Amino acid sequence: MKARSLTRREFLASTSATTIATVTSPVLPLAASVTRTAGKPAILGGEPVRKNRPWPDWPYIDDQIVDAVVKTTRSGIWCRIQSASGTVPTFEKEYARLMGSRFCVATGSGTQALHTCVEALGIGPGDEVITSPYTDPGTIASILSARALPVLADLDPASYQLDPDDVERRITENTRAIMPVHMMGQPCDLQRILALAKRHHLVVIEDAAQAHLAEYQGKKLGTIAPLGCFSFQSSKTIACGEGGAVLGDDEALMDKCYTVHNHGTNRAGRTECIGPKYRMNEFEAAVLLAQLAGAQERFERRNRNAAYLTSRLKGFPGLVPQKLYEGTASGSFYLYAMSYQQAHFDGLDRARFLKAVAAEGVGLSPYIERGLHREPWVDHIAQSRAYQKMYPAGRLRRFREEMCCPRCDQVCAEMVMLWASGPLLGSQADMDDVADAILKVYEHREALRSI
Ligand SMILES: *Cc1c(COP(=O)(O)O)cnc(C)c1O
């Protein structure tokens, strides 16, 4: 407990002075004003906390982005191989520089970036990769596309991140890599995962698809392990529709990533290995380059708003914000996530809570409803002819039997989140709306049980 509150204080110390003042106050910060939370709940016919005020839009659009796409269209350079100074090679240089990494290979999606890494490391049939059940399907798709076996380890239910102890328990003689995910754009327990990977001679691929610009122990997420992957899909905090990137410092390994993502053809034009065609196109990079201009400012604004929202909910037992690990300096705040404590709402269930908060004009929602350990792919691959040829029957049987992650189930049942790419770009008053809607529903929890 001690370590946890310290981490949060350190985290908040990196934000504005006003938030620190609020947070260190021993008084429970409840409603911004009593009148906002005392009235009848909107779902029972009262006035909503928030009315007719739109949230900031996402994806972010400005004239610079529109002009960049028009310029690329007119240039006739639509594909990266047409020009060494086109938008894709330029974006790769700029993104690597911004993130503090030596090399970048841009891809058509985050899933493609991850699969590129798996292939570049020579991971394939017979090999196992340990990752989280609480993630985007793209994470395991990248392992399955290489016909390796995704082994899912359970979570730390307070951080929604991989539990390093459970990862270690699931290592076999065929494990080749760990693919930790930085959920919500907050660091997973990376220090411990890197240490156990070293002990067991495993490579680490960071799934930083949600974690643009976030910092941990003085480095940006996605640049700490030998390879890190990002997504620029529309919903992410830097976005171009569909896009992705691999970052790394090892020149030979990053050249291999280039070759793999370029249908196995290297920079010198020799086709030398297995590889899909995963090149980013020039329009996607044009959008990204134009968007990088304000990305740091938007990242800082999300962090300030998140710290303020956390300070507003400090001491409120009904919703507990995501636990952050020691060394967390900032998060991307792709999602602002909290655990719903039904007992503190006197039994008001999560679905009714969410309905009542929505009626107040604030959209909170569950995130992943079922962990990937509960999806049909598990049976599909265990029964597939290809996997039965590549893996011993006993291994596939154990794979199915051990596909059990009760703490992930708990997280799926408890978690509520504000999708934050757009909304956390709002004002402090917008954050007050979120906190007050939550607190208003809390005050009326008895009456809302029957909705
Ligand atoms: C979005 C996401 C991916 C996949 O990225 P795409 O660009 O959608 O393919 C992988 N992992 C995580 C954690 C993600 O959030």
Could you walk me through the main structural features you see in this protein, from its secondary elements to its overall organization?
With 451 residues, the chain is an alpha/beta fold. It folds into 2 domains: 8-59 and 295-368 and 411-448, Aspartate Aminotransferase, domain 1 (Alpha-Beta Complex); 63-291, Aspartate Aminotransferase, domain 2, CATH 3.40.640.10. Helices cover 42% and strands 12% of the residues. The protein has 18 helices and 14 strands. It has a 7-stranded mixed β-sheet, with helices on both faces. A 3-stranded antiparallel β-sheet has the order 12-13-14. The chain has a two-stranded antiparallel ribbon with strand order 4-5. α6 packs across α10 and α12 (350-359) crosses α17 (428-443). The chain is globular and about 70 Å long. Mean pLDDT is 93; it is low at 1-27. Bound molecules: pyridoxal-5'-phosphate. Pyridoxal-5'-phosphate is lined by residues 109-111, 135-136, 138-139, 181, 207, 209-210, 231, 233, 244.
Name given to the CATH architecture of the largest domain: 3-Layer(aba) Sandwich
Stretches with pLDDT under 50, minimum 5 residues: 1-27
Strand order of the main beta sheet, please?
1-11-10-7-6-2-3
Structural class: alpha/beta
Return the average pLDDT rounded to an integer: 93
Shape: globular
**Ends: how far apart?**
36 Å
CATH homologous superfamily grouping of the largest domain: Type I PLP-dependent aspartate aminotransferase-like (Major domain)
CATH topology-level name of the largest domain: Aspartate Aminotransferase, domain 2
The number of distinct helices, counting runs of at least 4 residues, comes to: 18
Oligomer description: single chain
Q: What is the C-alpha radius of gyration, as a whole number of Å?
A: 23 Å
Give the distinct bound molecules.
pyridoxal-5'-phosphate
Which CATH top level class of the largest domain fits?
A: Alpha Beta
Beta content? 5-15%
Helix coverage percent: 40-55%
What is the makeup of the main sheet?
7 strands, mixed
